[in-house]
Amino acid sequence: MELIPKEQVGSSVLDATNDDAVWGAMNDGSRRTILDLLRARSMTTGELCGHFDFSRFAVMKHLNVLQRSGLVISERQGRSRINHLNPVPLQQIYRRWVRPFEKLPADRLLRLKSLAEQQQENGL
Fold this sequence. Notes:
Blueprint lengths: L5 H9 L1 H11 L2 H12 L2 E2 H5 L6 H14 L2 E6 L2 E6 L2 H15 L3 H16 L3
Antiparallel strand pairs: 1-3, 2-3
């Protein structure tokens, strides 16, 4: 198992609060849908509201959670608010929590399991 260098541990401890905000924001299916919509293109709050069966107020509450986590950046253009996806926090989560686990032997175990299941299905 690869150890995390001290300098990365220090920064990850400092980033833990933001990680918690990102994980919390991602915990809701409606917020994940908003992120999927914004991944396709930036949208006004009104455009986002058209994709949901709940109130504009509820969409705005979800957007506020996403903004506090840093996943969405909003800009005012006249009376409209344009919402943009900010992928940086997701990339940070990936680098901190997903990428290190890709190196673990779990991948080899999954391949071995798949091979054993294929052999069982083929009667070998």
